[in-house]
Amino acid sequence: MSQKETLYLKNLVSSENFVADYKTYLHPHIGKGKASVDTLENYFVAIEQYLTFCRNKGVQPLQANNAFLLSYHEHLHQKGYKKASINLKFVALRRFYHVAKLLFLIAENPCKNIPVNNLHEEFPRKTYHLTKKQLENILEKLPQDRPFLYYRNALFISLMALDGLRCSEIANLSLEDVDAEHGVLLLRKKKTADIVSLQKRSHLYLQEYLKCTEEKAVPDELGTPLFLSDANNSLGKRLSRRGIRYILNRILRQFGLKEENLSCYLLRRTCGSLVYASTNDLEEVRRVLRHHRQKGSTAYLERQNRLLKRYAQAQKLSPHTVADNKVNMPKKDS
User: Considering Cα of 267, then 185, then 238, then 215, what sign does the dihedral take?
Assistant: First the structure.
């Protein structure tokens, strides 16, 4: 870059303007400018929280140094934030200062040497997914005193665990995107859309849910919401992604399946694990979960291999013998 271009960028924006309008400057640099609304919200909430901390301490954000960022890291820890949450907040702050550096507002990124917490050592994950028996147990024992809530919650679980939908995709569903007769969903994206043919169980839950919907849906910018809130202050409005997560995490907790640092996303992982267990085909896992890259699907192969190795060690067998299906694998309850 020439000296003239450098001087131009330096004079393009002031420190005050950058901090005041950081969303405009950061947007093109988050997810290559194609980040989802949820991703942008997570970034901006984290940055806004940090800017409030700076104001309370009387520090101009672009004058903050590494020691100040370390003190903020410790502040979050003292406030009781989990290490995973702190990591995510600092991902946003690194991007904030990265863009400031690109605009020549700072010389170095003060987040550069902030340590990343090692989550795997402190939070060993035991339950990567549910077994088929656990999933059946939840669906059979959900409270059925209110049909609307029963079919809504059962449909949430079924859409994630059997059809591989994400929470955000479920929250964004509108009646205009649903073919209830044939059990087909249209999952809209920014420029494209995915078509999902539902499993028989999900199709049944969908039809029953539509029959017993208690409130009249309130249309919004996405259309006529499929999943409605039953809260007094938002009756008939679209149930948010966070609301769906809260409901699903509560259900998992009631069944003793909610582990620390594991969200209801394990239901979607359950889908991938069940598909791979029945097909041994990573391409089928990729197709069902709609992964754009094969890398996202290989996790299910690695997970299956770990389970096979653990079983082989317990039975004093060769992992290859187990993988070749030369022994009868017992049904696992957990």
Answer: negative
Q: How many CB atoms lie within 10 A of CB 133?
A: 11
The single-letter DSSP state of residue 198 is: P
Rounded Cα distance between 172 and 38, Å, is 11
Q: For 164-310, list the strands marked E by DSSP.
A: 178-179, 184-188, 193-197
Structural tokens at position 119: 């989550």
Residue 320: partners with Cβ closer than 8 Å, 6 or more residues away: none
pTM score: 0.59
**How many residues in the chain?**
334
Distances (CA, A) of 173 to 179, 239, 313: 12, 10, 45
**Collapsing DSSP states into helix, strand and coil, what is residue 221?**
coil
Residues in a beta bridge with 158: none
DSSP state of 123: S
Question: How many whole angstroms separate alpha carbon 160 and alpha carbon 267?
Answer: 6
Contact 212, 233 (CB under 8 A): no
Question: Residue 97 corresponds to which amino acid?
Answer: Y
Dihedral, 197, 175, 201, 181 alpha carbons, nearest 10: -70
Which tens digit of pLDDT belongs to each residue from 24-78?
A: 999 999 988 888 888 899 999 999 999 999 999 999 999 999 999 999 999 998 9
E runs forming strands in 48-189: 178-179, 184-188
Going edge to edge, which strands form the sheet with 184-188? Answer: 178-179, 184-188, 193-197
- Measured at the CA of 302, the angle between CA 298 and CA 303, to 5 degrees, comes to 115
Give the residue carrying structure tokens 């259900």.
251
